[in-house]
């Protein structure tokens, strides 16, 4: 029964999110999912406590629901931003040579899309052909600097030459 | 009791990373950090399976414990990867270095990264056996790759994502 509660909660979150994204609005895809899944997490937790009191079943119901939601977020952000996914989508149509594949997926378009997303998300602004960082973007850069310091990431994030042959690291999508 | 044990294990796993592993050069590699978490999950899975088989814990506890470990590892790995240098972060950093910059300048400086990224990703897909090379030298999706793409396509339709990547 606790598993049914988790699965039903997750299914409802997916359906509500699908409806919400079709209604438009300014929320990003991740925020719109959180907008429906977080209140549903409270509902799942409340129902689990009501049905099973504080027990393994109630804790498991909430944790499994959260695990499903996190997996869903991971998958749709991968689909939206993953370079690998984009390459695979092109191969879905027909087998292709490496050169043709590289040409069909314009790097320029890839960068343009990310600039547009960052602008739409309120991190950057573009006026008179010039792009500037907004307060929100500056805050994000600071958060990433802290995260990089925590994880001790050594590779310098230098655009135009980000590959670090010594560490074998590569740019992430 | 089993919840406390897992909480203790996760705390020890994080502390070991903070105190020791993050300073090691080998832990700067994506593969190493994935193995670090993969091993932790395998260990938890083995202990939970054993406890379940012996009847020490029930099905709900077993699922909950695995879900908690999964949540911890996936969150950690996602944050690690984002901080390691997402494409969007690189654009933000490029813009943050100057008061303002033209779109063309960003495009010029980021295009080389994009090209290298595509080549790396193609190699990754091959090594993960998600794509295969045909006899004529072209690439095609493997059955596993096709299954993944079909799943992601369904999710894209649900979430109204129009274009991948």
How confident is the prediction overall: mean pLDDT of chain A? 85
What is the beta-strand fraction of chain B? Answer: under 5%
Distance between the termini of chain B: 44 Å
Summarize the amount of helix of chain B as a percent range. over 70%
Instruction: Please give the radius of gyration of chain A in angstroms.
Output: 21 Å
Could you say which overall geometry of chain A the principal axes of the C-alpha atoms support? extended
Into how many domains do the coordinates of chain A divide? 2
Structural summary, described in words:
The complex is a heterodimer of chains A (173) and B (165). With 173 residues, chain A is mostly helical. Chain A contains seven helices and two strands; from the N terminus they run H-H-H-H-H-H-E-E-H. Chain A has two domains: 2-80; 107-158, no CATH class. Chain A has helices at 2-22, 29-52, 56-81, 83-93, 98-104, 107-120, 135-151; strands at residues 124-127, 130-133. Chain A has a two-stranded antiparallel ribbon with strand order 1-2. In chain A, helix 1 packs antiparallel against helix 2, helix 1 runs parallel beside helix 3 and helix 2 runs antiparallel to helix 3 (56-81). The longest helix of chain A is centred in the middle third of the chain and has 26 residues, at 56-81. Helices cover 73% and strands 5% of the residues of chain B. Chain B has helices spanning 2-19, 30-53, 59-85, 87-96, 103-127, 143-159, and strands spanning 101-102, 131-133, 139-141. Chain B has a two-stranded antiparallel ribbon with strand order 2-3. The N and C termini of chain B lie far apart (44 Å). The chains are: A mainly alpha (173), B mainly alpha (165). At the A-B interface, helix 1, helix 3, helix 4, helix 5 and helix 6 of A face helix 3, helix 4, strand 1, helix 5 and strand 3 of B.
